[in-house]
Design goal:
- By secondary structure, this protein is α+β, with helices and mostly antiparallel strands.
- The chain has two domains: 111 residues, Aminopeptidase, CATH 3.40.630.30; 124 residues, Aminopeptidase (3-Layer(aba) Sandwich).
- It contains eight helices and 16 strands.
- Strands 10-11-12-13-14-9-15 form a seven-stranded mixed sheet, sandwiched between helices.
- β11 and β12 form a beta hairpin.
- The longest helix has 18 residues.
- It is elongated and about 60 Å long.
- The model has no long low-confidence stretch (mean pLDDT 92).
Length: 278
């Protein structure tokens, strides 16, 4: 988190049992409001493994009591269950402490341990030779992807910028070379599409995915996703986190949802909980 620490006032917490660290919460504050953490894709409470249910509940109670004394507003955005098996348990416990679930993000993931049910729409390019000359290159050429595809496409289609600047993603990749990988698709030397993947243990997350106008006309994003799924499956990873399909106002982007479902992805909700002092 320290690469963008200047943007946030840190409010992270650590919970100890005697001298043993048993829980932590990456967090920031804005005035008297507590967020877990606005600079991270997912947040919530991270617990030491193998804690009993009674211990987990005691830790949550201590955290909630502390936060409710210190802050006017508290917000958690939890991790999907593929990252944290306590996901639903945490949400239920927080509701018992008068937290409200205010939003459920439709987060989709692919189970790489099962047979993947790809739509024929995603594989037609193999059958009609449209993908014949395409090649996936893994070379962490973030500059080509950012400059030629990601930033121009986000600006043209959404009047937006990627959350990470080119400088930031290169810095992160230099610090975590085994966890951040750039996949690119070329055809006869022409760059058509790319996906930036973040890898955590046996889970891989597609962080950025985009194609040039020509790449979109040739379904290059279908090709790179299918190839990457096969690569990660063969490498022994168990899940691909495809991210959520919600618009900024909370509604569902049906086109994006359909694209991910055709790759074999299924929904695993991510909840946002909040508590306000009246």
């Amino acid at each position: 988190m320290d690469y963008h620490q200047d943007r946030f006032e840190d409010a992270s917490l650590m919970v100890y049992n005697d001298k043993m660290l048993v829980a932590c919460i990456p967090a920031n504050r804005v005035d008297n409001n507590f967020y877990s953490h606005q600079g991270l894709t997912y947040g919530g409470i991270f617990l030491k493994e193998m804690l009993a249910l009674k211990e987990r509940n005691e830790i949550l109670e201590k955290i909630v009591c502390y936060l409710q004394k210190e802050y006017q507003y508290i917000e958690f955005r939890w991790q999907p269950e593929i990252y944290n098996s306590y996901h639903n348990e945490f949400v239920n416990v927080m509701e018992s402490f008068d937290f409200k679930t205010v939003q459920a993000f439709n987060n989709l993931y692919i189970n790489l341990e099962e047979e993947i049910k790809l739509s024929s729409k995603k594989t037609v390019g193999y059958r009609n030779s449209k993908f014949k000359e395409m090649r996936v290159i893994i070379n962490n050429d973030f500059k080509s992807f950012w400059d030629q595809i990601l930033e121009p496409q986000l600006a043209a289609r959404h009047d937006a910028k990627p959350v990470h600047s080119l400088k930031e993603i290169k810095l992160l990749a230099s610090r975590f070379p085994d966890n951040i990988k750039q996949y690119l698709v070329y055809e006869h030397g022409e760059l058509l599409a790319g996906i930036t993947f973040f890898i955590k243990d046996t889970i891989v997350k597609s962080q950025y995915a985009s194609a040039t106008t020509i790449g979109m006309s040739k379904n290059a994003n279908d090709f790179i996703y299918v190839e990457a799924i096969n690569i990660f499956k063969e490498a022994g990873l168990n899940s691909m986190d495809c991210g959520h399909v919600n618009n900024p106002d909370g509604t569902i982007n049906r086109g994006l949802q359909r694209f991910k479902e055709e790759l074999g992805a299924v929904n695993q909700p991510v909840y946002r909980s909040q508590w306000t002092k009246f």
